[in-house]
Structure formats: C-alpha cells, structure tokens
C-alpha cells in the first residue's frame, strides 16, 4: 500500500487486497521469477544486475493480472514500483537484521 500511495500507476482497493497481492507476488516470484532470473542471467550479468529491476517489474504486472483489487496500469509504474519495493525491502532487512553471531 505504500507503493500505491507514491506511484500513480498502482491501484490497491483495500488492505485485504494488499495482503492477497503480497501472497500472489511472493508466489509468482518464487515460481515464475526464479525461472525468468535463470533465463535472463546473461543479460543480468551484462547490465551488472540492473536487469533484475525489469524482471521484478514483470513479476508485478503478472501478479496484478491474477489479483482482484490490485492493478499496475503502466510499465513505468511497474518499474518505479519494483525500485521502491526493493528499497523498502532492503531497508526493512537492514532494520530487522539478526544481530546474533553467525557460525
């Protein structure tokens, strides 16, 4: 819902739709996303990893197709949304990092 607030091409109907979209995005990333990342590995290497933003944008569009109450209207919105989700996810991982000593 944070991304939908900042990106004009995103639409999330309500909190329940956002939760369903999160589950669908996770499922799509775990299945189709893994396959796409393997297939586009050479292009990802050539672009120094920046092509993964495009792959994540495709995953957002696919998830929006399957989720009622969640829509991504343009490819620009999908790209900006993928960047914002990456930034938010990285920040939350940094904030909630496990400080225990790892073996």
Shape: globular
Overall mean pLDDT score? 90
Work out the count of structural domains: 1
**Main beta sheet:** 2 strands, antiparallel
**SSE pattern:** HEHHHEH
Total number of helical segments?
5
- The strand count comes to 2
Radius of gyration: 15 Å
Descriptive keywords:
single chain, 103 residues, mainly alpha, two-stranded antiparallel ribbon, 5 helices, 2 strands, 71% helix, globular
How would you describe this structure to a colleague?
By secondary structure, the protein is mainly alpha-helical. The chain has one domain (2-95). 71% of the residues lie in helices and 6% in strands. It is built from 5 helices and 2 strands, in the order H-E-H-H-H-E-H. The chain has a two-stranded antiparallel sheet. The protein is globular.
Overview in brief:
With 103 residues, the chain is mainly α. The protein is 71% helix and 6% strand. The chain has five helices and two strands.
Q: Which secondary structure elements does this structure contain, and how are they paired or packed?
A:
Blueprint: H1 2-6, E1 10-12, H2 15-39, H3 41-46, H4 51-66, E2 70-72, H5 75-95
Antiparallel strand pairs: 1-2
Helix pairs in contact: 2-4, 4-5
């Amino acid at each position: 819902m944070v991304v939908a607030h900042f990106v004009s091409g995103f639409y999330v109907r309500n909190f329940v739709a956002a939760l369903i979209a999160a589950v669908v995005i996770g499922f799509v990333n775990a299945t189709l996303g893994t396959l796409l990342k393997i297939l586009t590995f050479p292009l990802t290497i050539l672009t120094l990893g920046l092509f993964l933003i495009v792959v994540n944008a495709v995953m957002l569009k696919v998830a929006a197709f399957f989720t009622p109450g969640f829509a991504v209207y343009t490819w620009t919105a999908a790209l900006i949304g993928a960047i914002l989700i990456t930034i938010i996810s990285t920040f939350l991982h940094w904030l909630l990092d496990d400080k225990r000593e790892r073996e």
